[in-house]
Amino acid sequence: MKISICTFLAVFLFTAKAFSQEDFKPKLGLIDRASLEMTAYPEDSTADAVFLYDYGNVQFSYVDQIGLVMIAKFWVRIKILKESALDRASVSIPYGESGSFIKDETISDIEGYTYNLVGNKIETTNLTRKSIIREKISSKYYGCKFNLQNVRKGSVIEYSYTKTTPLNFKDKPDTWTFQSTIPAKWSEYNITIPNMLYYKINMAGYVPLYISKRESVPINIGTSRLNGDGMAYRLVVKNSPAFSNESFITTPGDYVSKISFELSSISIPGETVKNYSQEWKDVDRTLLMDGGFGGQLKKFAFIKEIKAEIVKKSTDPTEKMNLAYAYIQQNIKWDGNGGLASKDGVKKAFENKKGNVSDINLMLTGLLRELDIEADPLVLSTRSNGRVFESIPLLEGFDYVVSHVKIGEKTFLLDATQRNTVPGVLPEFALAGIGRIVPEKNEGSFINLTPKLMLSRLEKIEADISPVDGTLKGKYSISLGGYEALRWRDKYVLEPESTYSDLVKKQNPEWEIDNFKVNNKNERLSESVEISYDFEIDSDGGNPETFYFNPMLTGRIKENPFKAPTRIYPVDFTAGSSTSFMGNFKIPDGYYIEEIPKVEIITLPEKAGKFAYQIKQNENMISVNSIVMLNRPSFSAEEYELLREFYDRIVKKHAQPLVLKKKK
C-alpha cells in the first residue's frame, strides 16, 4: 500500500496494532440508560447535540456485470440535548444515478430508531419503510430521505444504512470527517483495501487519533481471480470537539480532521496496470494542453496595437510591465468569476472588454510575453477554496490564476482583475499559502504567496478639552495604508463621498462632524488614503472640578477577538498589521492629570508582535501614543495563549480613563 500522509499540526501514524486504549463497540438497536439520562455533554456544555457514535466501514467486492464496487456501511447515533437540534432527525442520504445500472449507486439496509426515557422505561420507536422516500437533488444525484419519529429534547436517535458504489461511477471512497458542527464521543472509520488497488491516503486536521491500527488480512472479493491479501485500517477519534468557524481562519475544510483518498493505480491479475496517479509535471502538462488555459497563450496578434503603443512609450522592462498592467487593469472589466479556464477565449474578452480572472490575467501574461518580458501564469487556491499541498498533485485544488513576472532578479505577481492594486500586490483573498508557476517550457515550481503589504492604520487627534463646558473639540485624521487602503478603496472608491461620511457619523452619533475630506481616493494607488474632519463632543464625564475622559477616542480595541480559552487551530491574519493612535489634548491652565497611567510595553516572542502605550503631560498638553503591531500573518495554536493574553492587556489598557483635576 502506497501511503501519502499530509498533516497540519497533529502527527498521525499508522501502527501495526491498536493501542491499549479502552474500546467502544455498541449494538445497533440497543441503547444504554446513561445516554438517555444525559442532560448535557460534559466536554461541551453549549452543545445542542452530540454524536455518541459515528461509524463508517468500507469494503471492496466484485459484482457480475458491474465489476468492482465499494460497499460502505454507516451507523450514526446522536443524543438530542436541545430543541435546536431536532432537525437532525430529518435525514437525506445522497447517492448518484448515471442512467446505467453498471454505474448507479444504491442505498440499502436502512434501519432507524428513536429512544426515549418515559418514566423509568426505555421506549423505542422504529423507522417504518413507508416513511423512506426518494427525492431528486440534481441531474445526477438523488437523496434517500426519511424522518425519525417521536423525537424530542432528551431523545437518542440512531440510523444505519449501506451505500454501494461501482468504481465505474466513483473510483475512491468518500472523505470521512472526524469532526462536525457538534462534538463526537466516538468517531470511527474502517476500510479494507485489496492490494490490487493502490490509494494515496491523505490525513489532515488537528485532533489526534485515539486508535490507529493497520494489519494485513486475507480478502474475499467475490471471485477467485481477485481474491488475495489486503490492508485493513481502523482509525478512531475520541471526544472530538465540535468544529466552530472561528475568527482568523481560511476555510473550515482546511482545519477539520479528516481522511481522504486518491486512486493511484489498479493492478488486476492478468490485465495491464492502469495508472491514475499524477505528478505535478502532469498537472502542468494538463493545463498547458488545455485550450482554455495554455491554448489562450499562443496567439496574440489581436493585441499588437497595444504592444506598439507601449513600446513607443518606453524600452525599460519595468516601465513596460507597469504600462501593460495598467492597460489591462483599466480597460478589461472583471466579471467576478474565478476558475482556471478562459470563458469564451481571451480574444473575445478583449473585444467585449470583460472577462473572468483567466481571461484577464492570461491576456496580461500574453501581452507581457509580446513585450519580451518573462511572464508565466501562476495558479493558486483562494482562501475560501482552501489550501493546496505540495504532497497532493491535484489540478482541482486551484481556482484562480495570476501572472508571475521576472525582470532581472526581481519577481512580481500581477492580478489585473483588481482595479485598486499596484503591480506586485495580490488581493487578500488570494493569499492562501502557495501558488504554482506554470511555464511554457521548463518545469513548474511552487512559491510562497507572502503578503507584500501590511494592514496599516494611523489615527491622529488634536483637540481642546473644556471641563467647564464638558466638551472636546478638535481635528481627527486617519491614514490608511497597505491592505487597509485596498479594503477601503474596494468598498468606497466608486461610491459618493457621502456614503463613507454618513457611515462615520452613524458610528459616532455623539460626535458633531464637519469639513469631512478624503484625499488620494484612488489617484496614487501605492500611497495611503487620507481622511480628515473636524469634530466636537459633548461629554458627561464629570464637572468643572473633576473631568473624566478616555483619551483613546478612536483606535481603541474594546474587546479581545480571541474569546475561547483554548484553540487547536492556528491563527491566520492574512497579513501583518500596524495600528497606531496619536492624541494631543490641550487642557486649560490650572488642570492636571490626577494619576498618569504607567507606560505599558508588551512584546511577543521572536519579535512577532508589540504593544506600546504611553501618556505624558507637559504643562497644559497631554500626549497619548498607542501602537499595536503584528509582524507575522499567522500564529500557531501553541502561541494562541500568548496572543490571547496580549490582546487582554491591550483591551485593559485602552479602557483606562484619565481624570483631570482642577488645582485648588
From TrEMBL:
Q: DUF3857 domain: which residues? A: 77-202
Record carries keyword Kinase: no
Q: What are the protein's UniProt keywords?
A: Signal
Transglutaminase-like domain spans which residues?
Answer: 305-375
Against InterPro entries, the record matches this protein to: DUF3857, Transglutaminase-like
Q: Which residues form the signal peptide?
A: 1-18
Q: Tell whether Signal is among the UniProt keywords.
A: yes
- Pfam families recorded: DUF3857 (PF12969), Transglut_core (PF01841)
Q: What is this protein called?
A: DUF3857 domain-containing protein
Q: Which organism does this record belong to?
A: Dyadobacter subterraneus
Write the lineage as a comma-separated list: Bacteria, Pseudomonadati, Bacteroidota, Cytophagia, Cytophagales
